[in-house]
Write a structure and sequence with these properties.
- The protein is α/β, with parallel strands linked by helices.
- It has a single domain, classed as Response regulator (Rossmann fold, 3-Layer(aba) Sandwich), CATH 3.40.50.2300.
- Helix content is 39%, strand content 21%.
- It contains 5 helices and 5 strands, in the order βαβαβαβαβα.
- Helix 1 links the parallel strand 1 and strand 2.
- Helix 2 runs parallel beside helix 3.
Length: 122
């Protein structure tokens, strides 16, 4: 059974680069969103196992998405993918329920260990 991954970033190029960083042998169903509002709509439809979430986006940023997911009983794994590597941002996203913080651009070898640590076998 495929793992459903939602890639959330306002940059189409960043989404494309993250998708390319996913190992080809992973059995995944990919979905994409260009902002936090779209991400929450996709999440609310169900079946999102893993969300790769950017922090800086229009309409609703990644912090707001995490706050909303937490308020709604977060039931997917969220990996924040951001160029904002400030320790405060990393600590904040962890407090809001993200399982990991990955620096952009994403290197393929960084994704599998993060997900394996939380029991996601792809």
């Amino acid at each position: 059974m495929a793992t459903t991954i939602l890639v959330v970033d306002d940059s189409a190029m960043a989404r494309k680069m993250l998708v390319r960083a996913l190992p080809a042998q992973w059995d995944v169903e990919l979905r994409q969103a260009s902002n936090g509002v779209e991400a929450l709509a996709a999440y609310r439809q169900g079946d999102i196992d893993v969300m790769f979430l950017d922090l800086t986006m229009p309409e609703m940023d990644g912090f707001e998405v995490l706050e909303t997911l937490r308020a709604e009983g977060l039931n997917c794994l969220v990996v924040v993918v951001s160029a904002d590597i400030q320790p405060e941002a990393q600590e904040r996203v962890k407090r809001l329920g993200a399982i990991a913080f990955v620096k952009k651009p994403v290197a393929p070898e960084t994704l599998a260990p993060v997900l394996r640590e939380y029991g996601v076998v792809l």
